[in-house]
Amino acid sequence: MEAMDWLVESVEREQASASWLTVERLAYIGIGLLAVGLRFFQLGLRPLDAGEATQALAALRFVRGAIDVAPPGTVPALFTGNALGFTLFGASDFSVRWLPALAGLALVLLPYGLRHRLGRGGALAASLLLAFSPSAVYSSRTLDSAILVAVCGLALVVGLVGYLDTRARGYLYLAGAALGLGLAAGTGIYHLLLALALFGVVLYAGERWLGRQIGWAAVVEAYRAARSAEDVAEDEGLGGSLLVRAAVLAAAAFGLVATTFVLHPAGIGLAADLLGAWAQGFLPEAGGQPAVYPVLLLLRYETLILFLGLVEIGWWAARRRASRTSRTRFPFEAFLLFWAALALLLIVVAGHRPPGNILLVVVPLALLAGRAVERLWSWISQRVVWAEAGLAAAVAVGLAVFLYLQLAAYSQASAAATVSVVGMTLQSTATYLLLGLVALLLAIGLAALAWIWRGPRLVVAAGSLAVVVILGLFAFKAMWGLNFAHAADPRELMVLQTTAPEVRLIVDQLEELSRNRDGDAHTLPVTVDTSTGPVVEWYLRGFEDQVAVEGLSAPPDTMAAITLAMADPPIGESFRGQGFPLNKRWLPWGLWGQDLVRWLLFTEASQPIVDHEVVLWVRSGDG
After folding, report:
1. CB-count burial class (<10 Å; 0-12, 13-18, 19+) for 309
2. Whole-number pLDDT of residue 424
3. Per-residue model confidence (pLDDT) at position 133
4. Which of 84, 157, 485, 546 has the fewest Cβ atoms nearer than 10 Å?
């Protein structure tokens, strides 16, 4: 009998497990594993830039006991993550970025909580788009607050919308925790908070002054429900309304993260400074990027998400125009559009335009794009034969590949080279452009034939599939180039200025000198000019016997020294030096013709400019 009971219990457990592990959840697991690979693989490939090194050094000094208070400008959430990472894993280029990489994974999985709005397929598509998004992957592999703000912002939206729709208190707890973490994560969270506040004003104005129900009633009802809900189990140990408990959770999350689990109380002040830094970011910045820079980032890296997002916006606008009846449900698509548009506007008008802020536009567009994928799939399935649409799309993709090859050949061809075509001598560049034009004309002809054969629906279906495939291939190429193939190349538009990989060679040479001298890699005394900056200090963190000087004015007493390159260094004749590039920068402005096409297709252009160079000096006879 006991054996029979055990068998029944085993079958029940297997059935429960099978009911949980659906195909949909398996798909999310697969996307999550893909996101883990793209975010953690070779996470330390690119050297830390000055901003990353500054944040990392603050936590490293705190962990080592060198400081009790982090310097101004430290982001509390990054500080806490680094302090935890250094304590558990030690200090390295990999461990310093573990928190952004983990946040990037959370960003990919969060659309699961919006399935009731995006649809199951739409939420899955949004997760896949975020998993491959070049800017999302890049921000996840950078010690920067942008990805933390993006994941906290999306979690806040998921929690608020989920509670508005379901009244499930877990959603409101999620929103409270996300708000608390976001206020310690970076200045960008105030972009989203402003969008939420202004959208609420729009909903209120629509009902109060226009007399139309466009969603304000849903907000009011949810607020009243949260204020009056007191159904807490006694074992939770909390009283008061649901809104109060969510606020307590937000305060707890903020306090723990901002104070590094109460070990760094000054973090509260650093978190408060983020609001002032956000406001200051709208002031003009000398040497900053032009206002068009965020738009170019979208066009360069996020064309697929942008295209699908615009398709969904058009779809939504058409439905709204066809039906002008009042709605009491919260207008989620309208909010996503408002969020993306306002975020882009704020980034454009700001004086300080860090590339990571583009995520505040990419995230809502990715949600809209996911919804567009589900709509497109449903529309094609109902109105077009998939085999016909797939065949036409495959031919269109083939023509696009041919066009790409012609543009690639055009970008690499010599302006003086000629070819003979049907007895005519033409410049090779003109020939490739003509062949590309032929591909475009053939594509137009294909669309006309499909229209005649099956009508406009086949043209729309096949064209949409072809565009999605083509832009998807370009998005993957852009993602791989930005994060792996050209990880430290300032010719990537999202990078533009970076730490030269050669900075690691300084450490290699110092470690070799130290082994030759003492048999240990990190006992060599080194004099370091502080003007070399935080990057050099970070990479020399293993050398404990350092002498820091503010401007080298006399030959050092140590066997090695590191300074910025200068015309007449006061180093003395007993030292010999070797220069290493420290920072490189590059700007795309002014590219045209072949140069522009070559850069767009292959990220090839003139060599980056070396901004700063450091010199490793070694006393003669010791190297």
Report:
1. buried
2. 67
3. 97
4. 485
